[in-house]
Amino acid sequence: MEIFEKVESQVRSYCRTWPTVFTTAKGSEITDENGKTYLDFFAGAGTLNYGHNNPEIKGKLLEYLAEDNVIHTLDMHSTAKADFLKTFKEVILEPRGMDYKMMFPGPAGNNAVEAALKLARKVTGRETIVSFTNGFHGMTLGALAVTGNSMKRGGAGVPLNNVATMPFDKYMDGQTPDFLWLKTLLEDPGSGLDKPAAVIVETVQGEGGINVASAEWLRGLQELCREHEMLLIIDDIQMGCGRTGSFFSFEEAGIKPDIITLSKSLSGIGMPLAVTLCRPELDVFEPGEHNGTFRGFAPAFITATAALDAYWRDNTFAKSITAHASWLDEQLHKIIDDFPELKLSTRGRGLARGLVFDNPDLAGETTTELFERGLLMETAGAEDEVVKFLPPLTTTIDEFEKGLGILREALSAVSTKHVKVLAKV
């Protein structure tokens, strides 16, 4: 551990929550250098939807590397890219009646968001972007400007401008707003709101605390965008690739975004890959107008294609996600009933679930207890009041039951230490 303290920047964070050195991983488990194995309900913040070292995906990668195939090609053509584009079109876009052009903006989700914002401004000739309370879209300046978290925004060091923040669904005392406020601002020449280029939104806010937008709210947002000629950007970086059940998280709402951002689990195995999808008529960048060195990592194309082939050729995998999600929701409600003193609640969609604590401090203590007992989970929300479930989508019921058993032990320890003691005073 000494080398990390001496050489690595203080900005590191996850290693402070889980102070050990990890070495190997498979499926829903990860092992440290002491031989202790942990259940992983964090999954690389949603990057490992198909588990660690998925054998079907890894096998294709090893074959590709063994044959001295190209690894780095900037945006030159390659067979790896061609296969990915063909498979994505055939397996994802065409069955859903979707027609999008695909841009490779760089290796990470924030690159996809930056490209989306830049494209929206170029297409419309406007500057303002509408974002939402508790939204999270990345840590680079453009993405950070449309992010709500004050601590993260504070690190920018410069003003984060050209953004108008509006209330997310159920932000106002649990109510679903009807967009009358935003509609009034857009239509009133005295409101001071410049006509926006676009709206950017997550259908489920992951870092914001597993806040779920209703299908009705999303459809209303799309209607407002169409009425006022604003582009609708769906940030599906954490909630896409099956996290909510369907491949895209917005499918349930029946909406058709103008621009979609994808990353995290897109590569299937944890390698960097991000894309920005846009309607063909929005594909207006000049050649090289937006580029980067690592915007087409060939090995990630191979693993992404393998993931699509293995899990999305039919609806079997999607059905299993939905079934496991329903079961997990039932179990979490039982846990809430068994620990009334902790004042818990739950929310989420698919296998993005949150256990919400009335006292935020107890959420952090719970994740510490979980780590000590062999389960990795993180907190989320404006006050870190939510213990967040982002397990691999391939997690078995046996593994879920083991993890929930650990969760019960951790909650019991927290309750004994705080709530029950205070009740006696």
Automatic annotation (TrEMBL):
<keyword id="KW-0808">Transferase</keyword>
<dbReference type="InterPro" id="IPR049704">
    <property type="entry name" value="Aminotrans_3_PPA_site"/>
</dbReference>
<dbReference type="InterPro" id="IPR015421">
    <property type="entry name" value="PyrdxlP-dep_Trfase_major"/>
</dbReference>
<protein>
    <recommendedName>
        <fullName>Diaminobutyrate--2-oxoglutarate transaminase</fullName>
        <ecNumber>2.6.1.76</ecNumber>
    </recommendedName>
</protein>
<keyword id="KW-0032">Aminotransferase</keyword>
<dbReference type="GO" id="GO:0045303">
    <property type="term" value="F:diaminobutyrate-2-oxoglutarate transaminase activity"/>
</dbReference>
<dbReference type="InterPro" id="IPR015422">
    <property type="entry name" value="PyrdxlP-dep_Trfase_small"/>
</dbReference>
<dbReference type="InterPro" id="IPR005814">
    <property type="entry name" value="Aminotrans_3"/>
</dbReference>
<comment type="pathway">
    <text>Amine and polyamine biosynthesis; ectoine biosynthesis; L-ectoine from L-aspartate 4-semialdehyde: step 1/3.</text>
</comment>
<dbReference type="InterPro" id="IPR015424">
    <property type="entry name" value="PyrdxlP-dep_Trfase"/>
</dbReference>
<comment type="similarity">
    <text>Belongs to the class-III pyridoxal-phosphate-dependent aminotransferase family.</text>
</comment>
<dbReference type="Pfam" id="PF00202">
    <property type="entry name" value="Aminotran_3"/>
</dbReference>
<dbReference type="InterPro" id="IPR012773">
    <property type="entry name" value="Ectoine_EctB"/>
</dbReference>
<keyword id="KW-0663">Pyridoxal phosphate</keyword>
<dbReference type="InterPro" id="IPR004637">
    <property type="entry name" value="Dat"/>
</dbReference>
